[in-house]
Specification:
- This protein is mainly beta.
- It is built from 8 helices and 53 strands.
- A hairpin with a 5-residue loop joins strand 26 (355-358) and strand 27 (364-369).
- Helix 1 crosses helix 4, helix 2 (42-49) runs antiparallel to helix 3 and helix 3 (55-87) packs across helix 7.
- The longest helix has 33 residues, at 55-87.
- The chain is globular.
Length: 725
């Protein structure tokens, strides 16, 4: 697809994008160094504007001055890191410790990674905006282009083109944000690490009309992966939030993990599949769907707080409906046929993700939804909430983060804002951190846009540390990446909430939130020694988790000139082997009263999930055991889901654990372990033998069916509850 825009389009786009012409680039999603999205230093802009006789001298002086400022800031940041590590103890921090500061600009200065659009008014503007938006779609290969490199004629059943996964591990991050209004005639695929965000108070404030597809996701690699179907198994890391759309062909969203649809009003059918391609999704939350939801061949899906006007059909293994209204399907164990269907009509807790809006004056606002509780506000918990049940915060007290090349600068800039009591909204990009960002004050928000990515400090400390006894904190919209550890805090982790040395029950009336938090160990890095011990460690209580994917990469980026080690599995990636990208456990829960609605953990080398807190609740759990471990993994009795032996109360529904032991004949005795107690309830549990060797012998507590030597792959082995009767 042509990325260039001719001069006639250029004039129209100037009024639609950030109020100015976007900077020209060969391709918006080309690989770029960490911190590329930083705005141009003011000193350099001044020197460029002052082109006079002393041009060279001025430019050098300004650049030298800028370097000196950055060196000074780095030294200050290093000192702050040393001080922070000295006081990173159990001392409680109060509002009196907030540092007074200047207000932030509103509207904020948007970096190039945030593209702000306004409604087009003419057909010429619509055409120009379509061209611009499709720059952020995945690369396209046409049928003629593909088959011109072979001696074979193109089969007639192949599509005219396919999107590809070439940007699967790109470093680019983008947020496409839309000012309130009506957007007609726009059709664009939402590519890797791209978020589509409406800036209205309600989804219908930003509406896509008179379009065939609107924003959508197709399966990729249709000429090379199970042609002509392609795959939606790795269409990860993309999202649509806070819009309404009415595509004539229905809204297609053939995506898998870390690709949520959130706070949307789909005024048509919603198609969560693409033909016969395989898919491993996904999450739809806080939404209205006027038409029918069709899961197609989706292996699993979570539908949370959705108004299903015309019901839902199909699906493969596991569907979970939490807090939904309308034509919600009937519960089904899946023991006889179809997917298991778990329904929780009155969830005990619900907290929606914070979001940003633009008011009539062009100023930005941060909206922080209040929690709702099933026991006292049943009508509030059921169905989507598109009203004013949130706190509105002016952006003058919100720091818009922009990444820098220097990890110390990133830490110093962001931590300073947190210490000033401000909220953080992180623009898309990579933030390498020299030390942990510490959240010390109640109700603070850290919200990432466009898959903003925090890279962990190299000493094993977490990207984010939430202090104990700090209620109401919201952490949302972030990717957390492991680093190569140069020294080690034990245990190393990517996110820590609370302290092991301090009992923190949390606040039942003002719980914390983790929403759309996606951790990964390996994948995009050329260094396969990246590691951590635990991806997320929760010591405090009363935390609500909403769509978390904790992924030890099973495949990683190929190095320059490197051939794939398992080309029959994929010609595009290196498949992770034993010893690479090590991480022991996805999540360890020590705190009490923690709720997880939508949790996926994959491929860690010991127990995937360890739950040692009382009164835990999990709705929808998707887990793949590691592909690359040897027989000792089974001999050491590691499992996909472990509840501590002393726990008296725990509830879970829609729990799936899958095996695909690629390299060794590994036999795991059971998938799920929990104490035999009246206070522990588990519903709709299953395992799946995906492929290759070995097996999970039983489902839960050494009970339930398992595969045999003649079992077909992809067929669930089920228990309706822990008794497996």
């Amino acid at each position: 697809m042509d990325d260039d825009i001719d001069s006639s389009d250029d004039i129209q786009l100037s009024s639609l994008i950030n109020g100015r012409r976007a900077s020209p680039r060969t391709h918006p999603n080309e690989d770029i160094p960490d911190g590329n999205n930083s705005t141009k230093p003011l000193e350099l802009e001044i020197s460029s504007a002052a082109v006079v006789d002393g041009k060279v001298v001025v430019k050098k002086r300004k650049r030298r001055y800028h370097r000196l400022v950055k060196i000074f800031m780095a030294l200050v940041a290093a000192l702050l890191i040393i001080v922070a590590k000295g006081v990173m103890t159990s001392r409680e921090v109060s509002s009196k410790d907030i540092i007074m500061s200047e207000d932030e600009p509103n509207p904020p200065d948007l970096p190039d990674s945030i593209k702000l659009f306004y409604p087009p008014k003419t057909q010429q503007e619509i055409d120009a905006l379509n061209v611009e938006l499709n720059k952020y779609s995945d690369p396209v290969v046409t049928r003629d282009e593909f088959f011109s490199k072979t001696t074979l004629p193109p089969p007639s059943n192949y599509p005219e083109f396919t999107y590809t996964s070439d940007l699967h591990f790109t470093s680019a991050r983008t947020a496409l944000v839309f000012a309130p209004g009506v957007y007609e005639g726009l059709n664009f695929e939402v590519g890797y690490y791209t978020s589509v965000l409406g800036l209205g108070e309600k989804p219908t404030d930003v509406t896509f009309l008179n379009c065939d597809k609107g924003p959508h996701v197709d399966a990729v690699n249709k000429f090379t992966t199970r042609p002509p179907h392609g795959s939606a198994l790795d269409t990860f890391w993309r999202s649509v939030e806070n819009i309404a759309t009415a595509p004539r062909q229905g809204m297609k969203w053939a995506a898998s993990q870390a690709a949520p649809l959130r706070r949307v009003h789909v005024q048509s059918d919603l198609l969560l599949f693409d033909g016969d391609s395989w898919a491993s999704g996904g999450v739809l939350a806080n939404a209205i769907v006027d038409g029918k939801i069709d899961f197609g061949g989706q292996q699993q899906y979570l539908i949370r707080n959705v108004d299903l006007k015309q019901g839902a059909v199909n699906g493969a293994w596991n569907l979970v409906f939490v807090g939904c209204i309308g034509e919600t399907p009937q519960e089904n164990s899946g023991m006889k046929s179809g997917p298991s269907i778990s329904v929780e009509s009155s969830p005990r807790l619900r907290i929606e993700k914070p979001f940003i809006t633009m008011n009539g004056s062009g100023e930005f606002e941060l909206r922080v939804p209040y929690p709702t509780f099933g026991q006292s506000h049943l009508s509030d918990v059921l169905g989507p909430q598109f009203d004013s049940s949130e706190e509105v915060r002016n952006f003058t007290r919100v720091k818009l983060g922009v990444p820098d090349f220097d990890p110390a600068i990133n830490y110093w800039t962001l931590q300073k804002a947190l210490d000033e009591g401000k909220d953080l909204v992180l623009s898309p990009g990579h933030y390498r951190l020299a030390a942990s960002l510490e959240v010390k004050f109640p109700n603070q928000v850290i919200l990432g846009l466009g898959y903003a990515t925090l890279k962990a400090p190299e000493d094993g400390s977490p990207c984010i540390l939430v202090h104990p006894k700090v209620p109401g904190v919201r952490i949302a919209g972030l990717m957390l990446e492991a680093s190569v550890l140069r020294s080690s805090n034990t245990p190393s982790t990517l996110l820590q909430w609370g302290m092991p040395s301090q009992n923190d029950p949390g606040d039942s009336k003002n719980p914390g939130l983790l929403s759309d938090v996606f951790a990964r160990v390996g994948g995009a890095s050329n260094d396969r020694d990246v590691s951590t011990d635990v991806m997320i460690q929760l010591y405090s209580g009363n935390i609500f988790g909403d769509n978390l994917w904790l992924w030890r990469a099973d495949h990683v980026k190929l190095r320059g000139g490197e051939a794939p080690n398992f080309p029959a599995i994929s010609p595009y990636y290196h498949q992770t082997v034993m010893g690479e990208c090590p991480v022991k456990t996805g999540m360890i829960v020590t705190g009490n009263d923690i709720t997880m609605v939508g949790l996926a953990i994959e491929h860690t080398t010991e127990d995937q999930l360890v739950w040692s807190g009382e009164n835990g609740y999990v709705a929808f759990y998707q887990c793949e055991l590691p592909y690359d471990v040897d027989e000792s993994y089974g001999e050491k009795s590691f499992v996909g889901y472990r509840v501590g032996s002393n726990i008296k109360s725990h509830e879970a529904l829609g729990i799936g654990v899958y095996s695909n032991f690629r390299d060794y004949d590994v036999n795991v005795t059971t998938a799920i372990i929990h104490p035999e107690s009246d206070g522990i309830s588990m519903k709709n549990l299953f395992t799946v033998y995906l492929d290759n060797q070995g097996a999970i012998k039983t489902v839960v507590n050494f009970k339930g069916p398992g595969p045999t030597s003649v079992s077909e792959r992809g067929i669930p082995f089920r228990c309706s509850d822990s008794s497996c009767s």
